[in-house]
Design brief:
Layout: H1 2-23, E1 45-50, H2 64-68, E2 76-77, E3 88-94, E4 98-106, E5 126-132, E6 136-142, E7 148-155, E8 180-182, E9 195-198, E10 207-213, E11 225-233, E12 255-263, E13 277-279, E14 296-303
Parallel strand pairs: 1-3, 1-14
Antiparallel strand pairs: 2-13, 3-4, 4-11, 5-6, 5-12, 6-7, 7-9, 8-9, 10-11, 12-13, 12-14
C-alpha cells in the first residue's frame, strides 16, 4: 500500500511538473505558431515618397525631407502587436541613387556595449532593417555606437536556379566565401525551407550614421534617445536581386517588402508583457526572418510635401 501511494504521489508530482513546464513556457516567445504568423490584411502598408533635398547621412535627420516625411506608426511588440513603453518610428524615402531609411528611437537611458563590426549587435540595443527580394533578403543592424551587423540570406531552394552561384562573392565553392545553413530564429518551419546565410557580405556603398540626444552609457541623467540615418545605393542591390524581375531602382507604384524593428534590453515590471523586440508591423512570433510579414512599402514618384 505504501509503495502504491509512493508511486501515485510520484506520478502526480511528475504530471504537475510537466503541466507547470507547459504553463511556464515563455508566453512572449511562443513556439507553436501557425502559418502565416500574421494575416496579410494585418500587415502594415506605407508609401515611400521621393526626397525634396539632398540627404547628408550624419544621423541628425535635419534635412527638410526628414522633417516632413510621413513616419511609420509607433512600433509595437514583435510578438503580440501591443503598444510598447517607448516610442520608436521609422520612415523611408528615395531618389535615383539611394534608398534612405531613418529611425527615431525614444530611450531615456541610451546604452550600448558592442563595438566590433559584425559582432552580435542583435544582443545589444539596436535597430534593424530587412530588405526582401524574391529569392533572398538582406539584414542590417546598428546600435548607438554605430556598430554594424549585416548579412545576406538566400533561400537554399533558389540558390542555383536564381543564379546566385554565378555571383563571385556568393559562390559557395570558393574557399574565401563564408556561408552557413540557417533555418530561422524562432520559426523553423518556413514553407520555403532553410537559407544560406552569408554573414561576411557587406552591402556595397551603404552609408550609416547615429546621433545621440543625451549621454551614452551614463544613467545619471535622462536622455531623449537616438536617431539613425541610412543610405543604401540601388547599385549595391545587384547581388540581392539575382533572378528577380523587379526594377531597381523601383518604378512608380512598385511594392517591396521591408522590415523595421528595434531590439532592446529594457525590462518592464511584472507581469511582463514586453518581448524586448518591437517592430513597425508585428510578426506573431520571435523571428525577424519572415518576409511574408514585412510591411508593404510602395514607391511613389511623388515627392515629400514641403
Amino acid at each position: 500500500m505504501i509503495n502504491r501511494v509512493c508511486v501515485c504521489l510520484l506520478l502526480h508530482l511528475s504530471l504537475s511538473v510537466f503541466a507547470l513546464a507547459e504553463e511556464t513556457e515563455d508566453p512572449l516567445r511562443p513556439t507553436n505558431v501557425s502559418w502565416p504568423p500574421v494575416p496579410e490584411d494585418q500587415v502594415k502598408r506605407y508609401t515611400a515618397l521621393r526626397t525634396i533635398d539632398p540627404i547628408h547621412v550624419d544621423g541628425v535627420l535635419s534635412e527638410k525631407t526628414w522633417k516632413n516625411v510621413p513616419r511609420s506608426p509607433r512600433f509595437v511588440d514583435l510578438i503580440r502587436g501591443h503598444q510598447t513603453v517607448h516610442n520608436t518610428q521609422a520612415a523611408v524615402t528615395w531618389d535615383d541613387q539611394n534608398l534612405y531609411v531613418a529611425f527615431w528611437v525614444e530611450d531615456p537611458f541610451v546604452t550600448s556595449k558592442i563595438r566590433k563590426r559584425d559582432d552580435p549587435v542583435y544582443t545589444d540595443n539596436d535597430v534593424e532593417v530587412f530588405i526582401a527580394f524574391d529569392n533572398a533578403y538582406y539584414e542590417f543592424e546598428i546600435n548607438p555606437f554605430a556598430t554594424i551587423y549585416e548579412g545576406l540570406f538566400i533561400w537554399q531552394s533558389e540558390y542555383e536556379s536564381a543564379g546566385f552561384s554565378k555571383v563571385s562573392e556568393l559562390d559557395r565553392s570558393r574557399p574565401e566565401v563564408r556561408s552557413q545553413a540557417f533555418n530561422g530564429v524562432g520559426y523553423r518551419n518556413h514553407p520555403r525551407g532553410p537559407r544560406y546565410a552569408f554573414l561576411g557580405w557587406d552591402f556595397p556603398g551603404a552609408v550609416s550614421a547615429v546621433a545621440i540626444d543625451g549621454t551614452l552609457n551614463d544613467n545619471s541623467d535622462r536622455d531623449r534617445g537616438w536617431t539613425v540615418e541610412l543610405a543604401f545605393p540601388w547599385s549595391g542591390m545587384k547581388a540581392l536581386s539575382s533572378g528577380d524581375q523587379r526594377s531597381v531602382p523601383p518604378e512608380n507604384g512598385d511594392t517591396w517588402r521591408m522590415d523595421f524593428s528595434r531590439f532592446n534590453q529594457f525590462r518592464e515590471a511584472g507581469p511582463v508583457r514586453d518581448s524586448q523586440g518591437w517592430a513597425w508591423s508585428y510578426h506573431g512570433c520571435w523571428d525577424s526572418h519572415i518576409p511574408e510579414v514585412f510591411p508593404f512599402i510602395t514607391f511613389s514618384s511623388e515627392s515629400v510635401e514641403e
